[in-house]
Amino acid sequence: MSGEWHSYLRRIEELATRSGLRFHPVDFEAVPDSFMMEIAVYGLPVRMPHWSFGVRYIYQLIQRHMGHSRLFEVVFPGNPGHAYLAESNGLAENILVSAHVLGHADFSCNNLLFRRCQEQVSERIVEHAAQHARQISQASEAHGAQRVEATLDAALALEQHIDVDLALRRPRYPEYLEPPRSLVDDAFRRRFAALDPAHGAGGNEPRKRAPVPPHPERDLLWFIANYAPEMESWERDIFLAVREESFYFYPVFATQIMNEGWASYWHARLLREADFIPQQAYVDAIKCHSDVVRPIAAEQQVALSVNPYHLGFAMWEKIIATQGLEAARRIMVEDDDFAFVRNHLTRELAEELGLFRYSARSDGQIKVLTPELPALHEALLAPKYNFGAPVVLAKHVRTDGTLELMHDSSVDGRGLDLERSRKVLDYVHRVWRRPIVLTTVNQAGATLELTAP
């Protein structure tokens, strides 16, 4: 990282602070492009090893060689935050990226969802994930790489199946049902109960064990870690490590439009106000900004595939222009993408951005499929429900240990990829070590059962 760029970084940080951004310190580091891709694929600079990350790496490598993607930076929120910049970046790109990173740092430091998840997991996630990697390396030495990989297969197959509405560190279910309480709510009932001291006491009745689970359970990682009949402690630790990292990643997923838009708004604003940046570097940075926030389908916009940088940037500009920066900061603190899109993507802005769903015929004619704003909102948000995964719940554990899972397609309208589902059931069966039955529906809406083994 050049000394020239480093001197601009300090001045940009000072400008960001004067402009009202509040963020934890950020450690910037320039790394080779190949390492940047590894970080982006693994999600963290050091993370538990698994073959699936290699598959993702090959995909990203192909995409880059085809010219479909380039990584300028990867940011990890925390205290301190960590920002990795590509060594191939030029001065203008690094100036823009540094301002963009500070926008992210302000967002993650103040947004309530980010704060809640970081407080539960760790504000030093890079070090925390490295500890998980060491833990898994030690497990491989003690129990064999094949057994550890089988456990990781199951845990990572379920990494989206968490429940962020409940605490990261949850107690197990109560072992027994609560005894029924008699309703002594008026003078007559109290006098009647007093005539027979044994009435309603129930002291000699045997306590009834609570069913497992007592209600359909969404957090499959937590449930299996706590209730798999023969899971060993090191396997449980791996499941809980994957779950912790999923809690960390969830806010990134759930606020992508807001977060990328906020960072893009602030890098554009800080660039305009940074009169210390050389003219040519400023011009080059603005060109880079235009590339970052451009729509994906810029010519005819015939699809609903939307660049989150473009959509979020346009929404924040409109909010700040009409409601002011203080109101925008309140929204930034309190919302996730669901509230943000539903409350602040107006019909006027949607029409201006050409976001309503289109179809294009071979003769070039374009037709609006739906002009309804709520339908647009839900189409944009549909991939975000339940961390992007189908809603699968642990429903019941039978007396022989068979685990009953239920796919609730009515909640999100998603079907299951049956081939993938069978593979996931096979993975989970290796750690549950009892039969598993998953109830779902087929294309005709009829009940369908998948089993393992």
Task: Describe this structure as you would to a colleague.
By secondary structure, the protein is α/β, with parallel strands linked by helices. Among the domains are: 125-169 and 211-252 and 390-452, no CATH class; 293-384, no CATH class. Helices cover 53% and strands 11% of the residues. The protein contains 19 helices and nine strands. It has helices spanning 3-18, 33-42, 51-65, 91-110, 112-120, 125-143, 145-157, 187-195, 220-227, 233-254, 256-273, 279-292, 308-323, 325-334, 337-344, 347-353, 373-381, 409-412, 418-432, and strands spanning 26-31, 73-76, 81-86, 357-360, 366-370, 392-397, 403-407, 436-441, 447-452. The chain has a four-stranded mixed beta sheet with strand order 6-7-8-9. A three-stranded mixed beta sheet has the order 1-3-2. It has a two-stranded antiparallel ribbon with strand order 4-5. Helix 2 packs across helix 3 and helix 4 crosses helix 11. It is globular and about 85 Å long.
